[in-house]
Write a structure and sequence with these properties.
Length: 76
């Protein structure tokens, strides 16, 4: 599974959800969905804008973790 560590990078950059939302151009609600790991997908342009605003690489906010769920790929 992919874990989103957006809140960690935001804390490192001392950036609020409101500020990131304004810089990236997406709603706070959609940014919260992504930050809380509930997003099903993220557009590459959105990921690029987030990385630009936070001055980071995609791997700084998207972390792959192996799942204990044997049916994980069936949910995709």
């Amino acid at each position: 599974m992919i874990r989103v560590d957006l809140d960690v990078m935001m804390a490192r950059r001392k950036m609020s959800l409101t500020e990131l939302s304004q810089q990236v151009g997406i709603t706070m609600a959609n940014l919260s969905i992504l930050k809380n790991g509930h997003a099903k997908a993220v557009r590459m342009s959105t990921l690029e804008a987030i990385c630009k605003a936070l001055r980071c690489q995609p791997g700084d906010i998207l972390i792959y973790e192996e799942s204990d769920d044997p049916n994980e790929w069936e949910h995709a």
